[in-house]
Specification:
CATH architecture: Alpha-Beta Barrel
Low-confidence stretches: none
Cofactor: S-adenosyl-L-methionine; [4Fe-4S] cluster; Mg(2+)
Family: Belongs to the radical SAM superfamily. 7-carboxy-7-deazaguanine synthase family.
Domain Radical SAM core: 31-210
Number of domains: 1
Order of helices and strands: HEEEHEHEEHEHEHEH
CATH topology: TIM Barrel
Strand order of the largest sheet: 3-1-2-4-5-6-7-8-9
Radius of gyration: 17 Å
Distance between the termini: 32 Å
Catalytic activity: 6-carboxy-5,6,7,8-tetrahydropterin + H(+) = 7-carboxy-7-carbaguanine + NH4(+)
Function: Catalyzes the complex heterocyclic radical-mediated conversion of 6-carboxy-5,6,7,8-tetrahydropterin (CPH4) to 7-carboxy-7-deazaguanine (CDG), a step common to the biosynthetic pathways of all 7-deazapurine-containing compounds.
Structural class: alpha/beta
Shape: globular
């Protein structure tokens, strides 16, 4: 395909900048411990300084890949597919989710919510970032709110975000990995004092799996 045709396909969601795809155990949030096939889409301009997948930021490093091929690969594995990034909502997710559902997959997304919601999702994990706050569409539809705790001020940010998300969203606090020794005890104390929250850990890192 020529560059113009590729760009048209990307704009339509028929091709996406695929960084990696892998079958593993969900390590975070509500579905921790369950098998899932992860599709990591490149491209993110939110720019969290503690991001552990900074190589995903530049979409140009990740070749546009046919959505048909992505779906075909995912269909060989678990019933649940998790779309993550980067920031997947940078791109139109409509076609990807439609095709995954046609293949009888439960489709989850992990997003900062920085862009309007596209696609049809069975589960939306919203992990908001201060650099670029979520759009209202994602606040309204999120099934879980997962706030990363890097310092004590992040508890204030978490409560601000809890006020904005819909009333049905399940609330999680998760220590940023490099600060886990310092922040985890504070999170435990905070959740015990504020039981509307739950603790989330990056259990896949403890298990040494992707």
């Amino acid at each position: 395909m020529v560059a113009k045709d590729i760009q048209i396909a990307v704009d339509k969601g028929a091709m996406l900048p695929l960084m990696e795809e892998f079958y593993t155990i969900q390590g975070e949030g509500y579905h921790t411990g369950t098998a899932a096939y992860f599709i990591r889409i490149g491209g993110c301009d939110v720019g969290c300084h503690w991001c552990d997948v900074k190589e995903s930021w530049n979409a140009e490093l990740h070749p546009p890949t046919s959505t048909d091929l992505i779906v075909a690969n995912a269909s060989k594995y678990a019933d649940t597919v998790v779309v993550t990034g980067g920031e997947p909502l940078t791109w139109d997710m409509t076609l990807l989710t439609k095709q995954l559902k046609e293949n009888h997959k439960k489709v989850h997304i992990e997003t900062s919510g920085a862009y309007p919601l596209s696609g049809d999702w069975d589960w939306i994990c919203l992990s908001p970032k201060k650099n670029k706050l979520p759009t209202q569409t994602v606040y309204d539809k999120a099934h879980e709110l997962k706030v990363i705790i890097h310092n004590k001020h992040d508890f204030i940010f978490a409560e601000e975000q809890a006020e904005l998300v819909n009333d049905n969203a399940i609330l999680f606090l998760q220590p940023e990995w490099s600060k886990k020794e310092e922040m985890t005890p504070l999170i435990v104390d905070y959740v015990m004092a504020n039981p509307k929250w739950r603790v989330s850990l990056q259990t896949h890192k403890y298990l040494n799996i992707p």
